[in-house]
Model the fold of this input.
Amino acid sequence: MKQRTRTQMKLLRLNPSYPKEYNMIRLSLVALALASGISLSGTSSASAAPAVCSPIGGVGIPNFFAEGEGNPIIISAALTGSVQNAAGKITAQRETATGLEMDMEHYFGRDDGGAFQTKDIGILTAVPGKPGRFMIEITYDIQDGTSRGTLKGANGSFNSYGLVDLRDPNNMQGLVRYSGKVCQ
Done:
């Protein structure tokens, strides 16, 4: 340990016989080497540039299509904002003390060819006095390896909240606001 400390001290010593500019460059190089070592510690040599995160947000108008007993409910939605269309399915549904909980999958797309897939949990809270109507909150988690086009490499999660009307199995619909951030 003492030998290492002496070596480090030798690197930092300035030689008075050299010109002042040489010693300043030497100090700068030592500082740069130390800073590089600190910033690279714990990272692999194949690490990529830091992720750039962008806000995502807008409004969705989903329609739900029941495909019969034992089949997933299909979701199709027009969106405004960061993405322009979405499709999905409800893969499982459970009753809770306050309404329903749903396992969902969504596929989002943009006009520029970017797309990604999410796996989600939807929490539906019954609206008192309004049978078949629910407040809905969904957390969308972008799945690794599912993004493509201009959104290739996208990751992150975002949320939505809104209202859905599930009274008529032939006319289930809703309105949601989504927001969050997506990183690439």
